[in-house]
């Protein structure tokens, strides 16, 4: 319908209800080109490359544990521990969650500047991330820790008895033109799954599903499977969204410095953990 036809209808029909309908029709006609212009461009086929950033609501930081399973005391957010898994969890002393302790008493390996490893790289401080692709690999560059992962796409299988690595061994394949699935094993048992101190064993197997929704949107789902620690697999991150940033976007560095950590502990963490009586006695 063109503008002249809409104007003629408005002039001919002077009753209130008809006038309302005509106004709505005019508004829809005028806004149609705007809505069409704002529609996201389609995703490129089999391409994750780019600089991706989580929403500004800090949903990637996950301070109380994996976003889809936060350690908030709710029964539905309790991972399905085996007896061994619960025992291992209670040995960990995180500074966040229902079992938290004062920071100076925590035994979180990250507080010593050990690598946080995988999948914790996805489940704590997941910030701006760059993805690069070659014919044989997908390489992920993380802001936190300034580390990278290599995901092999050359058809190789995961190692059956791997020497443990902080970030494990990863292989990936496209299941359709917009979904890339990654399998990872061989993670070092010294690492935690998340900031709440969830444990894992050498049997840990992690699945990541990267889904390119459109040109500017990427979603990531992370599933944990560790039969020694958990009675069934569970989703730790569910369709975490990222937005594409410009190719010249400068990713800042976030690096754990042992000297800065020691200074923080000396000045802040340890004094805050001391009882008031001991401070008064000084």
Structural notes for this entry:
This protein is of the alpha+beta class and 282 residues long. It has six helices and nine strands. The chain has helices at residues 3-12, 16-38, 83-91, 120-123, 258-273, 276-280; strands at 50-53, 129-133, 137-142, 148-152, 169-176, 179-185, 205-214, 217-225, 234-245. The chain has a nine-stranded mixed beta barrel with strand order 1-2-3-4-5-6-7-8-9. The longest helix has 23 residues, at 16-38. The model is unreliable at 6-11 (pLDDT under 50).
Secondary structure layout plus pairing:
Layout: H1 3-12, H2 16-38, E1 50-53, H3 83-91, H4 120-123, E2 129-133, E3 137-142, E4 148-152, E5 169-176, E6 179-185, E7 205-214, E8 217-225, E9 234-245, H5 258-273, H6 276-280
Helix pairs in contact: 1-2
Give structural attributes:
282 residues; alpha+beta; 9-stranded mixed barrel; globular
